[in-house]
Queue: 2 jobs
Job 1
Amino acid sequence: MKIILQFFILFMLLSLVLEAQEKSDYAIVQLFRTKAQSISQSVDKASSVQECAELNTSVDAIGKEFVNDKILLNKAIYPDGYDRTIEHLRGKLLVRQKDLGFIESQVVRITELETTVSTLTDQVKKLNMQNDKLLADIQMLNRNVQKLTGDLFDAATPLDSLHNMIVKLRQGLQDRDALIFALTDSLFLQYDKNVSDMKDVEKQGLLGKIERHNIISNVKHSIVDNVAFLETTQLKGSDLVTLVRQQKRFQSQWAGIAPKLTSIYLNGKTRQYEVSSVDSMLAVWGDKVDNSMWRSLNTLFKEKGFFVKKFENGEEFNSNLIAFLSEQIQNPNEETNDTRFKLFTNFHENLWLTDLNATWLPALTELNKISDTQRKEIEAKVEKWRSIVSPGASWLIYVLVLLGVLLIPILAIRLFPKAPQAVKETSST
Amino acid sequence: MKAIVILFLFSIFFLAGCSSLILKPGNFAWPVESVSKVDNKGMIEDNQYNFSLNVKELLYAETQDSVNIANVTLRIIRDAKGYFFVTASKFKNVYIFEQIEGGLKLTKKILIIPEGIENPAFNQRQPYIQLLNGQSSPILLTKEGILEGEAK
């Protein structure tokens, strides 16, 4: 038995080793040679500090990429091997930098930014793949559960695995959005000046980097994914508010970089169109997110049993809610105090405290859908409704009135006592 | 007696002069395979390992075609013992040669796949030669044949 087990382990190990070594050594050597040659040629052509910094990063990258094949390369590439090829590239680049008169610290700073850019690009790529997979999984799971449950199901149905995936994807989307803008910032920071002050060569260099790192297509990808996420998940309440906030943040970050990109793309109509197409995609996303938000709020009132007239924007929301609250205060149907009190308690405990005042009103104010004054007006109306229907308050009023009625004669007796009897008697005598 | 002694000494010197001088151990392994295109004359040339070879006969043996030989890409690797392993894309076999004066002599022909190997590549995995065959599992070869892996 022991021998069989040992044989099995040996077999597994051997399979793993064989699987791991499936790359052709010749292909590895050729790839290394080609990459090193390409960097070497680029060093000869480099003319700006940014190009030198970029090449510095490329040398680091090729070093990292092939470090595991170092032994093979040292044997296969005669006489330089891995070590001397890398060393040679670094030396050549240093000489070029000196020839061009660049200061080392400047190159180092830009190299650091370039490294950040590379890292961020890799992370964006990974997140792109991860998010795509999660979105596909969620869509598939949605379809499967819908098949099983029919109309009873919506994406808000508590299903642990689906919920976990949604949370993960939402985080992934947020992270990716942040990375894309960090990446773009790092690219612009390398030039340390406004786009309008850049030389044509620098603009070209920046343009090349923007395209190489797929800035615009990543932004578009992000918007498309966010819209798909919104449509697939049909989130509600605070989850939806988070999505709205995310859209607004994205929009404001895009507003920060769009003018810069437009001035970089000054000579290319197609590229300028790319920037404006992002604007329109963002507008679509904004509309969808707003529609979802109003739809979710309308549904919330309906689900909790409060008949607020349908609204589709902040103004309508405010006026319709105020109208509803005013109606409750005025009581045109002349409902009994008990019914009114029950309705208010239901509203207060199941809608006002849990959703409206806790999540929606602060969010709507923050997102400029309603003003501070409108929010205060709504709060005042709710307070008034409470004061009118509250039985505690009316009981107190009755007691106070009763006390008042009792106190008035007592006070009157005390303040205006009858004339003393003795004086009367004296006067008669 | 004197004649016997002279004859004895002569035979000792003669035998000593005839015995071969052997240098061992040796390692002739190439770190990576040589990949060369066959020209119109059936020749291949490698700059790294610095050799040239006429491979017409090999191509005829494999394809039965000695006319359309140009642009076939041959892959050759030498193992630690000095044997040459040769194959190419669409070849059914791996050919093993040993060096002789001014050429190579076939010692073994190993059938890998009757339909032809898709994307062959040799790796040096001492003491073996590893043959990669597209998506299939790699095969370990020695001068005697297949050591490990799947031949179809």
Job 2
Amino acid sequence: MRSAWRAELVKIVTVRGQWIGVVLATLAIPLASFLVVATGGLRSGASSTSGTVTGSLVGLLAFGAWSAVITAGEYANGTMVLSLSTVPRRLVLVTAKLLAVATTAAAGAVVSTLVALVVVLGVRAPGAHGFGDPASLVSVVAAVVVVAVLGASVGLITRSPSGSLVVVALALLLPRAASGLLGGLEPWVVGATPDTVIMQIVGGAQLPASQTYPAGMWAAALTMVAAVVVIAAGSALVFVRRDG
Amino acid sequence: MPVAPDSITLPAGALAADIVVEEATKVIEGVTVLDRVSFTARPGVVTAFLGPNGAGKSTTLRAILGIDHLTAGRATIGGRPFRDYRQPLRVVGAHLTPDASHPRRTARGHLRVVAASNGLPRSSVQWALELAGIDGIADVPVGRMSLGMRQRLGLAAALIGDPAVLILDEPHNGLDAAAIRWLRAVLRSLAAAGRTVLLSSHLMSEIELICDDIVVIDGGRLLAATTLVDFLGGARGPGPGRRVSLEERYLDLVGEL
């Protein structure tokens, strides 16, 4: 497993477009947060940590898109045959792929969040905002990892980079965009999407009740993780059956 | 450009492993693409796997490597299915297509991925680059390489673990004369060191020079599995006293002469 995981990491660092994708995704959260805070978008009373996560949806989309292209791209460019003939055990291979994407995304998210925090502290109006709870920013890292695993899983299922991008974007944006269609399920669905989970944990952002998970923020986080674990397991099953 | 030596010294293989295909059958959407194909590729010899386009050669090689499932029958390497090997490159090296590497990854990067996947040391990358004669273009993106250079890269990836068994699917495509001579030397050296070599090719004149055993399939069915000598034995070519060539014997067998 360790060798397969290392090979997947080497794959990422040996293609310029792939590691540039990580860098761009890493820059997304600080840049978006900077734009929000610098233009006065951080409401009075909100903490610096909540300002830090204002750009999280952009970052989540970026990491989700990156990871989807990583896995689906192996089919698109015909290199999956190499993976299959060097790591014969399908479960090991798919686990290594998901772990490599998760590891890279976690590293990127840590840097991204720290840079975003520094940026927000630098541009916030002096004395207008408290610091907030820095530990809550771990939720950004967790959500980025979850979305990266989601993207990689979708890429393995669809085998199409463009198709994967559409699915990831819909998974992140559609629940809130179509919340009116969800009826009583709205807080259970929208409240467990990665960006609202971040908002709930970091606090400071006044989410409407319809977007707040009724069972609490930690239950929302668990639901988010559980949903992605199910999707990842599904992708592994599809991978083993179809490419086995 | 690489030197094309008459022989290449390789260490004796740690393992002697044969490839055994037994009653291999594959049905895709109701069409039988492999029909009870059986043959053995032995250690210490080069076995040619011949057949027209669409005969089922690549399907068979992919089945041996566990990339495709067989509907019935089995294929083993050293008595075990390929998938039972945790780090197969030390036992089996395979080159199925020159397009198995990312076009934006360099040759060195590609081999780094391959080496890492099986826990091989970084030094094996340089060794394989030099063995394949592509160390001079190791940092060129694969997408900018010629077909011949990509074939060499594929061969380097197959050889990187110094395997007991080598499986090659049409490795001669795109190679120039010097590279074909180089490949001949490599394959003969591997066989001389006790390795098992199974390769498909349409280059009959070259196959006749390097192979000991011949397996022929057509339409998914086995037509012949024997030694080159027996395959050619007794058959006479056109003209008095002329021995039949492998090409003539093969084309006669598959009904294309």
